[in-house]
Design a protein that fits this description.
This protein is α+β, with helices and mostly antiparallel strands. The chain contains six helices and six strands. Strands 1-2-3-4-5-6 form a six-stranded mixed β-sheet, with helices on both faces.
Length: 218
Amino acid sequence: MHLALALARCAGRVVTKELAAQILAEVCPHEDRSYPIYTLPTGSWQGYSFSAERISGNEAELLPLHQVYQRDTRGAVATDFDYDFARLREDERGGKVILFAARREGELAALLRTRLWRDLDSQLLMACDDMLVVKPEHRGSMLAIRLCGYVERTLFGAGVQEITVDTLSINGAERIAHFFGYTPVATKFHKVAQEACNYSQASRRRRKGVEHEPLAPH
């Protein structure tokens, strides 16, 4: 009924992106619980400035670095890669994501995206890195390490009790975790489903067609 009334009030108008957002906000009001990044300190190092920034409204500037990250971690990416910023904006609005950026003379040089949540058992505030990427022309220095150090200090200063770092074996990022004294606590495994759920091409299987076989006899 709320949707019907909202649409009726817009009768005869062209449904633009802005109008659609207005209708959505009216039908599904959502409190903005995004983290107050203005309360977080800034940092600097050798001409680079570090600060927390918003995802919403900066998508066009962020997209090239997301494409670099995709190329680094998943291979070639088309230039028209359609990143799901809508979901990121929703997570940011819910206070689940904080984006940290490094800039030099205003140019975006590196990003470190983090996720926040409260542990179900302890209710302690936790954080985990979600994406770390440095533009190729800004690599070869200590920028990634300096940015990570700034983010760690900022998160702990904001009340985060534990930080988890996920590193990909293919890019050597685990060296940064070791540099900051993080303790290895798990090994993560990864598998991609084949087309039409054909698991026969998956590597290191004992034989074809055992994807649902129990690990031990009953």
